[in-house]
Amino acid sequence: MGRIPTALAHRTGPDAGPHRKEPILKQARLKELQADILVVGGGLGGVAAALAALRAGRRVVLTEEYDWIGGQLTSQAVPPDESSWVEQFGVTASYRQLREGIREYYRRHYPLTEAARNTRELNPGGGHVSRLCHEPRVAVAVMESMLAPHIGSGRLRLLQPYRPVAADVDGDRVEAVTLAHRDTGEQLVVSAPYVLDATETGELLPLTGTEYVTGFESARVTGEPSAPDEAQPDNMQAVSVCFAIDHVEGDHTIDKPADYDFWRDFRTDFWGGNLLGFRAPNPRTLEAAERTFEPNPDDDPLAVVGDQRRGGGDMNLWTFRRIAARRNFTPGAYASDVTLVNWPMIDYFLAPVIDNPDAAVHLERARELSRSVMYWLQTEAPRADGGTGWPGLRLRGDVTGSADGLAQAPYHRESRRIKAEYTVVEQDLSAAVRGDKGAVSYHDSVGIGMYRIDLHPSTGGDNYIDVASCPFEIPLGALLPVRVDNLLPAGKNLGTTHITNGCYRLHPVEWNIGEAAGALAAFAFERGTAPRAVAADPALLAAFQDRLTAQGFELRWPDIAAY
Q: What percent of the chain is modeled with pLDDT above 90?
């Protein structure tokens, strides 16, 4: 892995369109790093990809834009959405290590009650969305501990906070990526034979000229029952800025947000009322349904069972995504429950934030919407006793690791997606289409996942699209760009459609995608071949799948029912 020959190096980025190639000279002021595998993006897929490559003995550079690794689980503050069978099967061994590590961290470091400590499937928050709701920084600590031995050995270089700003491309290969420090602007260049895009929105795809799609594909192309006749590339799922709250004595009302009046009065035809309200569509029926909200109910968190088969769990907003249930801890340890606000009313769907020159404006408007929701909860939200507002609600920026009280990063449900060798479509896994046959089984499976097709309201004015799914597989072909040889997707940017992204985007699936991509890059490096050659050669594919299975990947589902 020598220095990139300047005669072969071409840059794409903000100053050069993705298909415009101009020779560049490496600037002396730019620091250069080299690795066997470069993973850009330290979310769940990126961490899993790095771990897989490191297990194979590769030298890895892993980058992350935010202060915390972990993406949707941490900096975006979204408790894990998982299948109903997650405690038995359906995830990789390393994802299970992450989950059990989180529980063990609580047992070692938190003042749990004896009953909570002795609960095998401990759910610290007693939230209904998942069997494991927890504070984001615990997941950060566990993932950092998983990476720590590799950092200590020198085989892993973790760069934070860095984001990609340009790429050097030679024909169908990505030679290097230029990264900029988020705060100082200092740049460095990382070269590697294999590059993985684990960013939240597929940032490397336009930078490298890799072919990709956004938004809704056309039903004429995909044949999907839920797709429109014409493609809608700017029609993407809402982005959300989550935040954590508790409720204690006193008045903790925040300053009135500048856009509060706009958001308080905002409504759309399909919502069933104002956006800032407890009435919102039921994602599965689309009928307007009234949510309840009451801080610190006197429930038993150990009795809560997060099971998506029983419903979304979102009718009680306080316990829906509760991440710390005070009754799981010794008396007085927590003055209040802590709950995570990722509710229908914080979904920002006025405009897309991908490939939009005004993306920064709309991301700030999404943050303003979240601040407006908080202010509304404190001042005007209707209470069951006839009053309005809970001034005792308090933003917990210390829980989300942010100065302004909101999550460090926006929650992107949808990414740019590669044009792939194989694209997963709705009819591959829709329970309505597949029936008793179950999801399509792929000969090149590199993992499995399960979640309903769950699309939030979108920038094209669509209501929820929520479709029952069959437990599905992850085809290797969906990880292979149609042209570029050495760039792999390692998150929500694989070959799915707008619709099937709705079930491939969740925590354990993103982890599996990233882990498979990291393992594939390491396998290709070892064999001296291209990732697509592994898919094309039956013997190589079988050897790769055997390696995945030996490392704790599950490639097929047992006989279980859709929901």
A: 91
Residue 1 lies in a domain: no
Model pLDDT, residue 39: 99
Task: Kindly report whether the peptide bond that precedes residue 161 is cis, defined as omega within 30 degrees of 0.
Answer: yes
Q: Phi, psi at residue 85, to the nearest 5°? A: -105, 15
- Domain holding 446: CATH number? 3.50.50.60
What would the pLDDT profile of 196-210 be if each residue is shown by its tens digit?
A: 999 999 999 999 999
Of 388, 412, 436, the residue that ends a domain is 412
Contacts of 514 (CB under 8 A, 6+ apart): 43, 44, 45, 46, 47, 48, 49, 52, 196, 198, 490, 491
Nearest to 294 by CA among 272, 322, 274: 322
360 & 503 share domain: no
186 in a structural domain: yes
Q: Say if residue 401 is in the same domain as residue 420.
A: no
- Report if residue 383 sits inside a domain: yes
pLDDT in tens, 285-298: 999 999 999 999 99
Query: What average pLDDT does range 352-376 have in this prediction?
Result: 98
pLDDT per position as a tens digit, 98-126:
999 999 999 999 999 999 999 999 999 99
Q: pLDDT tens-digit profile of 338-354?
A: 999 999 999 999 999 99
From 394, 412, 430, the end of a domain falls on 412
- Looking at residue 95, its pLDDT comes to 98
pTM for the structure as a whole: 0.94
Residue 484 zone, left/alpha/beta (φ > 0; ψ -120 to 50; rest): beta
Distance (Å, rounded) from C-alpha 561 to C-alpha 17? 47
Dihedrals φ, ψ of 531, to 5°? -55, -40
d(CA 454, CA 292): 22
Whether residue 258 is found in the same domain as residue 141: no
CA nearest to 337, candidates 321, 316, 353: 321
Non-local CB neighbours of 508 within 8 Å, separated by 6+ positions: 80, 82, 83, 86, 90, 91, 92, 95, 449
pLDDT in tens, 219-243: 999 999 999 999 999 999 999 999 9
Q: What is the pLDDT of residues 438-486, one digit of tens each?
A: 999 999 999 999 999 999 999 999 999 999 999 999 999 999 999 999 9
Q: Which helix (H) or strand (E) holds 540?
A: helix 538-550
* 358 and 441 share one domain: no
Give the CA count within 13 Å in the CB-facing half-sphere of 63.
32
Domain that holds residue 56: 31-79+134-220+415-551
Residue 307 has pLDDT above 90, yes or no: no
- Give yes or no: residues 360 and 436 share one domain: no
Closest CA to 345 of 388, 285, 414, 293: 293
**Do 393 and 480 sit in the same domain of this protein?**
no
Give a yes or no: residue 4 inside a domain. no
What token pair was written down for 546?
């055997």
Check whether residue 75 and residue 184 sit in a common domain: yes
User: In terms of Cα–Cα distance, which of 499, 488, 354 is closest to 423?
Assistant: 499
Give the number of domains in the chain.
2
| Residues 179 and 262 occupy one common structural domain | no
Separation of alpha carbons 357 and 133, rounded Å: 36
The 10 Å Cβ neighbour count of residue 182 is: 15
